[in-house]
Design a protein that fits this description.
4-stranded mixed β-sheet, 5 helices, about 35% helix, Ribosomal Protein S5, domain 2, about 200 residues, single chain
Length: about 200
């Protein structure tokens, strides 16, 4: 199976509207890193830009939410929709590498990320942020976003940061490492057109 045979099908456009958020998202896994993101949460937009740019995904997100309360619902719901879009765009997951991993430094911080597009969610997060906030962004929302992404993308995601003295750098290293891991996992293995599982399904 050639990459071209797969790439025409590896797109997803999803919406989600609740009493808390209204989200429209488009994803192309075989893009060039084109980004148009506006969630109303500046730091989260910054992290999503890293995810798309370093993963070479085209990503458009327009979101509004109850930011007068806090950013929690918006961050959580955007991540839920993004994970669902990844899962939808992958389809049966024929010919993908399935696994991805990356170790990414960001000045004082190092992030190690490994993932498996297994169809079974699992989330391990071994990270300590030096501060509770990055600007007005609660650092606990990094874990909330990744947990939501993991659940709807139906993947195993392990995130470990052994050290880092700057919270911004820690978060940025995580999202860049996630981007490179996803880029590897969704890539097409030219040697196979099979679903990469002995069970025959993911």
């Amino acid at each position: 199976m050639s990459k071209n045979m797969v790439s025409t099908q590896r797109r997803a456009t999803l919406t989600r509207k609740t009493r808390e958020t209204d989200i429209a998202l488009s994803l192309n896994l075989d893009g060039t890193g084109q980004v148009n993101i506006a969630t109303g949460v500046g730091f989260f937009d910054h992290m999503l830009h890293h995810l798309a740019r370093h993963g070479m995904f085209d990503l458009t997100i327009q979101a509004t939410g109850d930011l007068h309360i806090d950013a929690h619902h918006t961050v959580e719901d955007v991540a839920l929709v993004l994970g669902a879009a990844i899962d939808k765009a992958l389809g049966e997951k024929k010919g993908i590498y399935r696994y991805g991993w990356a170790s990414v430094p960001m000045e004082d911080a190092l992030a190690n990320v490994a993932l498996d597009l297994s169809g079974r969610p699992a989330f391990i997060f071994k990270v300590e942020f030096p501060t509770p906030k990055i600007g007005d962004f609660d650092v606990e929302l990094v874990a909330e976003a990744l947990r939501s992404l993991t659940n709807t993308a139906k993947m195993n995601l392990h995130v470990n940061v052994p050290y880092g003295t700057n919270s911004h750098h820690v978060a940025e290293a995580i999202f860049k490492a996630l981007a490179k891991s996803l880029w590897q996992a969704v890539a097409i293995d030219s040697r196979s057109d099979q679903i990469p599982s002995t069970k025959g399904v993911l």
